[in-house]
Amino acid sequence: MKKEGTIVVVDDNRSMLTAVEILLNGIFGKVVTLSSPNRLLSTLREVGADVLLLDMNFSSGINSGNEGLYWLSEVKKADPQIEVVLFTAYADIDLAVKAMQRGAADFVVKPWNNAKLVATLQAALALRKSRSEAKQLGDIKRSFSPESSENGMFWGTSPAMQRLRAIVEKVADTDANILITGENGTGKEMLAREIHRLSARKDELIVTVDLGAIPETLFESELFGHVKGAFTDARTDRAGKFEAASNGTLFLDEIGNLPYHQQAKLLTAIQSRSIVRVGSNTAIPVDIRLISATNRDLNRMVAAGEFREDLLYRINTIHIEIPPLSQRTEDIVPLARIFLKRYAAKYGKTCDGFDDGALEKMLGHDWPGNIRELQHTIEKAAIMADGDLITADELLISRREGNAAEQTVATTTLEEMERSMIAGALQRHGGNLSAVAAQLGVTRQTLYNKIKKYNL
């Protein structure tokens, strides 16, 4: 039997401590004994105890159990997760009930039966692990907050998107693995969330993992979790993204960026629908709906030996390709209006449309950055806008000039736009900071900090 967990035993009877220590050394990974509760709280912190076996009476001639109840309360204040089993020489059922109400895991009567004592303490350790993992998994799940309704899928009216929508509505309610491909900025994650929203798993989480952003050394820990002591910084057991997504949807973004040697580990988890945490040998079943996405040509990568063919077959039961914005020009202006409404509200502007010059400029641009580029362009225009309509001059679209070998791109960052906006407001109000702050909707201190930042 593998020894695991740390237990602290507190009793003023030293011979009893010795007997319990000998018994438990074959069960727990670490056994710490104390003959007095005076250093109990500091000891629990130092050793990272999982279970506490606590005597209920320490003072000679006193057998009320109040001392044990007091220390039970103090321990639970310091560490609500620790499991406490109480030791007493008096089989007092009322005291047992009172102790359980205050958070004790169980109650053992002296003289004890070895098998029963071990079973009680092992059950307490299992309860500790279960509660700890549930809390940790709950923390992970809460970190994946639902997207706001304003970020929902925009289907538009283009024939390409209507065909895509028909496919999505057919496959969303199944558990088929889906591979979404498309250029950067086309909305692959948004589509994944829409598929999840239309699925039978919609009331569970969709957990997103950017495989291109995970360091190679943390890949297994992030996806599959780890157990305490698996590596230097593994101070507690930790669930991975597969467990967090169980019963829901796991979205693996940028799957084409996954190094070849790690693809086999991912394939094993997908095939077996189970994971093994780093440092453990125990398989944990997971129930996920898998959606993957990439902007790379995985078939070409397979031919070049850069992507496993068997993994590709596993992830693309259904393949959906999102068309670039240049192939759905009917959707450019409706999307722009959605973004303008959002950013006009955010920046306190009155603009609610585009003049003819701005519309012509938007429709004449090829939008190589797709929806993401359009969104950023409209945000900058909303910041710069002075009137009710966005003008062509306020629509600062990146310009591409020259041939392919000598192509240059003129861009304006949000910081440059902010500096220009503040400088213009300062000039209009003759340096009156209160008036400028009121116009921009910021505090005087924030405005002052921005002026210092931009050397205005």
Task: Reconstruct the topology from this structure.
Layout: E1 6-10, H1 14-24, E2 30-34, H2 40-47, E3 51-55, H3 66-78, E4 83-88, H4 93-101, E5 106-109, H5 114-143, H6 159-171, E6 178-181, H7 188-197, E7 206-210, H8 219-224, H9 241-244, E8 249-253, H10 260-272, E9 274-276, E10 283-285, E11 289-294, H11 298-303, H12 309-315, E12 318-321, H13 332-347, E13 353-354, H14 356-363, H15 370-384, E14 389-390, E15 399-401, E16 408-410, H16 414-428, H17 433-440, H18 444-453
Parallel strand pairs: 1-2, 1-3, 3-4, 4-5, 6-11, 6-12, 7-8, 8-11, 13-14
Antiparallel strand pairs: 9-10, 15-16
Helix pairs in contact: 13-15, 17-18
Description:
- This protein folds into 3 domains: 6-135, Response regulator (Rossmann fold), CATH 3.40.50; 149-323, Rossmann fold, CATH 3.40.50.300; 327-453, Helicase, Ruva Protein, domain 3, CATH 1.10.8.60.
- The chain is 44% helix and 14% strand.
- The protein has 18 helices and 16 strands.
- The strands form 5 sheets. A 5-stranded parallel beta sheet has the order 2-1-3-4-5, with helices on both faces. The protein has a 5-stranded parallel beta sheet with strand order 7-8-11-6-12.
- α17 packs across α18.
- Mean pLDDT is 83; it is low at 145-150 and 401-411.
- This is Transcriptional regulatory protein ZraR.
